[in-house]
Amino acid sequence: RCAATFRQTDFRGGCNGASIRLAPEKDWRVNVAMDQVLRILGHVRAQFATAAGALSWADLIVLAGNTALEEVGSPPMPFQGGRVDATDGSRSDDLEPREDLNPILEVKDTMDLMGLTPHEMVALQARPRSPSQQRRLGYSGSWTTNCCE
């Protein structure tokens, strides 16, 4: 989910910094239940702590995303480490996705901000269809909170 905040216009957002684990980003509605994912990743991260340092949260989140995609059939994705962790979430203060805009204009604006092609935007918006993931996030059926839609 962190990739969805990247803006090519000012290079804010994105996965570098792992701001998704910090306020305000961790409290956004789109990141509900992210604390559960981060708790699991925290156990993984602890296994890689060394005297020279630790695996950054930012690298771990990207690596976990790549691995998850590969596990469901994506071609192998190259990984390049070196991301660093932010100490506060202030660079995310005004990046929260808005829900009050015209959906078509919002998608076009988001694509422009992120420097994405239409195909890249569709791929970024893909969601796992796992019923357990849907329940954890409060959805049922086809990503709706109303079972009858």
TrEMBL record:
Entry's transmembrane regions: none
Designated name of the protein: Plant heme peroxidase family profile domain-containing protein
Span list, region Disordered: 73-97, 127-149
Keyword Kinase: no
GO molecular function, one term: metal ion binding
Keywords in alphabetical order: Heme, Hydrogen peroxide, Iron, Metal-binding, Oxidoreductase, Peroxidase
GO cellular component, one term: cytosol
PANTHER family found in the cross-reference section: CATALASE-PEROXIDASE (PTHR30555:SF0), HYDROPEROXIDASE I, BIFUNCTIONAL CATALASE-PEROXIDASE (PTHR30555)
Residue spans of biased composition, Basic and acidic residues class: 85-97
Similarity remark: Belongs to the peroxidase family.
Biological process (GO), any one: hydrogen peroxide catabolic process
Native species: Eutreptiella gymnastica
